[in-house]
Write a structure and sequence with these properties.
heterodimer; A: Rossmann fold; globular; B: alpha/beta; Rossmann fold; 7-stranded mixed beta sheet; 13 helices
Chain lengths: 309, 317
């Protein structure tokens, strides 16, 4: 498989571009997280994004290519572990069991707290997304402080994009988490070629991981096209937090699939499909069945939210 | 005992009464701003709930908001009300979390902030940014007006019995170091205006550090002038303000800091609802606009002379 400019360097690898599991030791993870369930949820996240693309709420940006992050976070965080998502992580609440019609209603800005494109599902321990950039990181750190006071062995997860790493709120949150040695997992979605970013945005360096290691954080960089690698890194980070070993960063290099000339192995769905095919867990019938189920549910939810019957 | 010592004892009491409460601030593990965490610090059972954070106002406010999301009841001590301007972005988010995220989980945050002149600091330590803070929708803003009521204000703000939203309690620096012989119960809802003295010839509305010069000006005038401590700055006790204005028909608003929108709001309330009772123009008396150096920080409060002059003008109008 040919290396492309979209392939990140220095990442933990679970599935290589051909969909082969590089380390048999990771079979343990696959025993806990069924790869077909991973595939189904990533497919659902992709379809959710497609539905939103059709409506295109204000300030909305496509999340195709980032599914591995949402799915790994939603599956690996325990039910009572809070998640502070960013705007492109809508799938988390859906996977956690949020009513899809309610999700669609909120995402379209038709619910009581209506801000188009954003949702909150506090009963599922999914926080809202503040409009002010990065405030949710500080809140996640405060939430983790409460867990530390309780001594309950729970982690808090906060998601953001690498664009946020130049803001003060990002550094403030990191400082507070390090000072308090708090059980929070920062999950950063990095793009190698961020769209619309000014040249000076890259001056701090490509690797958020390296920057935060310098702050004393345990940090892992992984590849968003490789859901197994993402899940493995996240699992380690969550376990550290639960064991009281402090804050951590999981940086996931994601590829915006709508960008031109993105090779197919950069698509997390395609890479996992290759793995499933190679291990004889994939069939056209399997995909047709789950696609029909997902489309049926999402189609109904968005029709209801748009005021249809 | 000075007010700061009294509040230190009260904060220890509050922590003891409710295990959800947490004291947050930069130096709370070192006695806290003007010693507010000193009493809690010496009790080993409470020390774990003193949460020291970096001195970054926005991070501190976000930290408190996150603690509240987890079901805690944080009491955040900031070094100065002006620090909340540094932390405005997080304060704004704190004020609207309940509306966005649903539920009352996130509301139970109290912020204690010294305000106005009194420590001889000048600069930020003399400023009165309450109008900017009170402008945030979803935030309750209270300003203590009497040393003997300081404890009642903080206790009331920390109770959240009726599901109130996040609350800022402004502690005028001129009161924090004042002697406080005894605690007085409020005898009115928190945030309601308090009639300090009655008088039929004119009504002075004031809050915080402006109450003392207002009272001095009234006493020096020898006239029958009412004084009202506004107390709640967001929301303002509109019914009490309108009623007190209507009783005398002559209104002076004396407040700390430069001329600002809170006094203008009170004037507008009076014009809107008591216009037929008014017998004179509504006057505003403010302090000098900053920044002030430390030797003249007292000028941040309206002077006794300027309040007396305004009173003479409305009474003789």
């Amino acid at each position: 498989m040919e290396q492309s400019p979209w392939d990140p360097e220095g990442v933990e690898v679970g599935l290589d571009p051909a969909g082969r599991l590089v380390d048999a030791a990771w079979q343990g993870l696959l025993a806990r997280v069924d790869p077909r369930a991973l595939y189904k949820r990533m497919l659902a996240a992709r379809h959710l994004d497609e539905h939103l693309a059709r409506v295109a709420p204000p300030m909305w940006a496509p999340a195709a290519g980032e599914e591995a992050v949402s799915v790994a976070v939603a599956l690996l965080a325990a039910d009572d572990e809070w998640i502070y998502p960013g705007l492109r992580d809508l799938a988390i609440a859906a996977i956690r069991g949020m009513d899809l019609a309610e999700l669609a209603k909120q995402a379209l800005g038709a619910a009581y707290n209506g801000r188009p494109g954003a949702i909150s599902a506090t009963e599922l321990a999914v926080a809202h997304v503040p409009e002010a950039l990065g405030v949710h990181l500080g809140m996640a750190v405060g939430h983790a402080q409460a867990h530390k006071l309780d001594g309950c062995g729970r982690a808090v997860v906060a998601l953001f994009g690498e664009g946020l790493t130049t803001t003060g709120s990002f550094h403030e949150a990191i400082a507070a988490a390090v000072v308090g040695d708090l059980p929070v997992v920062f999950v950063c979605k990095s793009q190698l070629w961020p769209e619309g970013a000014p040249a000076e945005a890259g001056l701090l360096g490509d690797s958020v991981t390296e920057r935060l290691r310098a702050c004393g954080l345990w940090a892992r960089r992984c590849d968003g096209a490789d859901v197994i690698g993402v899940a493995r890194s996240l699992e380690l980070a969550l376990q550290r937090a639960r064991d009281g070993r402090g804050p951590s960063l999981v940086e996931v290099v994601v590829t915006p699939l709508h960008a031109p000339q993105v090779p197919s192995h950069r698509d997390p769905l395609e890479r996992l499909r290759r793995y499933l095919e190679a291990t004889e867990q994939w069939s056209p019938t399997f995909v047709a069945a789950i696609e029909a189920e997902i489309e049926g549910q999402l189609g109904r939810a968005f029709t209801l939210a748009a005021g249809g019957a | 005992m000075i007010v700061a010592e009294r509040l230190s004892l009260l904060l220890a009491e509050l922590l003891r009464e409710d295990p959800r409460r947490v004291l947050v601030g930069e130096d709370v593990r070192d006695g806290g701003m003007v010693g507010l965490s000193r009493a809690a610090l010496v009790e080993p059972a409470l020390a774990a709930r003193l949460v020291a954070t970096p001195l970054i106002p926005s991070a501190q406010v976000a930290h408190a908001a996150g603690l509240a999301m987890a079901g805690r009841r944080p009491i955040l001590i900031v070094a100065s009300a002006t620090a909340l301007l540094d932390g405005y972005v997080a304060l704004r988010e704190l004020a609207r979390v309940r509306g966005c995220a649903g539920g009352e989980r996130s509301g139970a945050v109290v912020i204690l902030a010294p305000v106005g002149p009194g420590f001889g600091l000048g600069g930020d330590g003399a400023e009165s940014p309450e109008a900017v803070i009170a402008a945030l929708v979803g935030l309750r803003v209270l300003c203590v007006g009497d040393a003997e009521e300081a404890a009642a204000y903080v206790r009331g703000a920390a109770s959240f019995d009726a599901g109130e939203g996040p609350t800022v309690v402004l502690l005028p620096r001129s009161l924090l170091l004042a002697e406080c012989a005894e605690d007085r119960a409020l005898g009115r809802p928190l945030g309601a205006a308090r009639v300090v003295r009655e008088g039929a010839e004119a009504t002075v509305f004031a809050w915080g550090g402006a109450l003392a010069p207002a009272l001095a000006a009234i006493e020096a005038s020898g006239r029958e002038v009412a004084l009202v401590d506004v107390g709640g700055l967001a929301p303002i006790d509109e019914a009490a303000v309108v009623a007190a204005a209507g009783r005398s028909g002559k209104v002076v608003i004396a407040h700390p800091g430069g001329a600002g929108p809170l006094a203008a709001e009170i004037a507008a309330m009076v014009a809107d609802q008591a216009i037929l009772h008014l017998d004179a123009p509504v006057l505003r008396v403010s302090g000098r606009e900053g920044p002030l150096t430390y030797p003249d920080e007292a000028a941040a409060l309206p002077s006794v002379e300027s309040i007396a002059a305004a009173l003479a003008r409305v009474i003789l109008y």
